[in-house]
Design a protein that fits this description.
The chain folds into two domains: 64 residues, Homeodomain-like (Arc Repressor Mutant, subunit A, Orthogonal Bundle); 135 residues, Tetracycline Repressor, domain 2, CATH 1.10.357. 76% of the residues lie in helices and 0% in strands. The chain starts with a helix and ends with a helix. Pfam families: TetR_C_7, TetR_N. One of its GO terms (molecular function) is transcription cis-regulatory region binding.
């Protein structure tokens, strides 16, 4: 007897609920979205929605958790003392750019940002959660600093400065203005410029 099929079906329903919630939150906002609407959009019963997520707040928390988890590759990136800073940064920023072009990640970000604007307390909660878990780029910069390869700096500030250059072209225009993602040549140009400027200013 195939015991894996029910689990796969459950997983598909759960994902359908999350995707429906994303669409409803984006279209109507958190407060105006009901679990009934989410169930109808997902093509499942309201009971099924509640079986997976006891409340709308739990569902939104799950969306936030997916947003944090989507940056796992960046969190896992480690500093390598024997490899040039430029090589490592081009790889790290290339991974960041790949995340920023992912449509699902952008949808998650749109919902989280919109809710943060309408409910500042949620924005504070999101920022606090991010602060509790040092970001991979900041950790990489801290390691390079400890290895004596960078001038004295604030790792968190330098990380925001570096990543902000990518987001200026490949995140905020797409999230806030619906612009299409950058093509491969434009992505390479942005990453290269950001890395070169960072190294020109901070590298020893």
């Amino acid at each position: 007897m195939d015991t894996t099929h029910p689990q796969r079906l459950t997983d598909r329903k759960r994902q359908a609920i999350v995707e429906a919630a994303l669409a409803e939150f984006r279209a109507h906002g958190f407060d105006a979205t009901s679990m009934d609407k989410i169930a109808a959009a997902a093509g499942v019963s309201k009971r099924t929605v509640y079986n997976h997520f006891p409340s709308k707040d739990d569902l939104f928390a799950h969306i936030l958790n997916e947003l944090w988890a989507s940056s796992a590759a960046l969190q896992a990136f480690r500093y390598h003392p024997g490899v040039s800073l430029r090589t490592q940064l081009m790889d790290l920023m290339g991974q960041k750019m790949a995340l920023l072009r992912d449509n699902y990640f952008l949808d998650l970000a749109r919902v989280a940002i919109a809710e943060g604007i309408h409910r500042p307390e949620r924005a504070r909660e999101m920022i606090a959660r991010l602060a509790d878990k040092e970001e991979g780029v900041t950790a990489w910069i801290r390691a390079a600093l400890e290895d004596g390869k960078l001038k004295p700096l604030d790792p968190a500030f330098a990380s925001h400065l570096l990543q902000g250059q990518l987001k200026m072209f490949a995140f905020w225009p797409q999230v806030a203005m619906g612009q299409p993602p950058l093509d491969a040549a434009a992505e390479t140009a942005v990453v290269t410029a950001a890395v070169e400027m960072f190294l020109a200013y901070y590298a020893v």
